[in-house]
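USER: My hope is that you can spare some time for a protein that puzzles me. I am handing you a single protein, as its sequence and its fold in token form. Walk me, if you will, through where the backbone shape changes along the chain. The protein I mean follows directly.
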Amino acid sequence: MKTADRGVNVLIRTENHHDYKNVFNLHYSAFGNREDESRLIERIRKSDGFIRELSIVIEQEGLLVGHILISKAKVMNEQQEKEVLVLAPIAVDPQVQRSGIGKKLMEEGIRRSKELGFGLIFLIGHPTYYPKFGFKPAREFGLELKQYKVPDDVFMVVEIRNGELEKVKGELLYPEVFF
């Protein structure tokens, strides 16, 4: 999808193997010269939870300036196991942050997730940014996260298919590749 962004040509597309080095470097610089998120992406790509269509990049003037990765996880309780999605990580080139790239990544990731038939996306993230996209504190809906010790307001979920939050209760389990 091509869109005009403040007079700059922007291309939103699915990541391909030619992007891997640039995606690694993007996350490295966006997360303060740490490799954690870049290495996480490498592990997710090799896992059963990887969904190619949900690894999305944005190019601006031919340069990769944004990336989002949404992959499979599950919510479990005594009666059921439900496949859901987790958003992690997302990065925007520090030189173009606050220009709408993150918003475009979020909207495209949510749109594609819904098209693929998923009902819920979870994340651990900033409590004032993600609610703009419909994310709400997950524990309010009977959902729990024990793998990471985080405050209630940063463990969030968005319902992308009506009625999913009424059907799913239990503990979100991130796949082993996250650890």
